[in-house]
Amino acid sequence: MRHLPKIIYSTITHAKQRYNTSGDYYFEGGTLNIRVSKTAANHEFLILIHELIEWYLTAQKGVSIETIDAFDKTFEKNRKPGNTDEPGDDPNAPYFKEHQFATYIEEQIATELGVNWDKYTQNVNRL
């Protein structure tokens, strides 16, 4: 990748996500779209940062969005009741390392913003 693509960010109702996720990214033409479920502004920002970092790291490592989507959709289809893990937390996820790093940065920014990490994750899990 020589240059970053055009990036469009938008907040949407959770029901309009492509599948059960609080943050999503995909290409439409040459434009990267990042869609975040509507919630508190600080929470939307944290999800946006996570998605942007995860996308860039996976792109650099050659993990396609299609591969990530396929894994996520299968994970959601097979999700056990009461399991609130994110698909990227599964060690078998093709983007496990990148997701973990994005979560680490997200948590650091949450701390800087004064966002309680436990309450934040509970809020995201309720979406």
How would you describe what is shown here?
This protein has 127 residues and is of the alpha+beta class. The protein has a domain at 40-126. The chain is built from 4 helices and 3 strands, in the order βββαααα. The protein has helices at 41-61, 65-77, 96-113, 117-126; strands at residues 6-12, 23-28, 31-37. A 3-stranded mixed β-sheet has the order 1-3-2, covered by helices on one side. The longest helix is centred in the middle third of the chain and has 21 residues, at 41-61. The chain is globular, with a radius of gyration of 14 Å. The N and C termini lie far apart (34 Å). 24% of the residues are buried.
Offer a quick outline of the entry.
This protein has helices at residues 41-61, 65-77, 96-113, 117-126, and strands spanning 6-12, 23-28, 31-37. The chain is α+β, with helices and mostly antiparallel strands and 127 residues long.
Which secondary-structure class do the elements indicate?
alpha+beta
Helix content: 40-55%
User: What would the principal axes of the Cα set say about the shape?
Assistant: globular
Biggest pleated-sheet summary: 3 strands, mixed
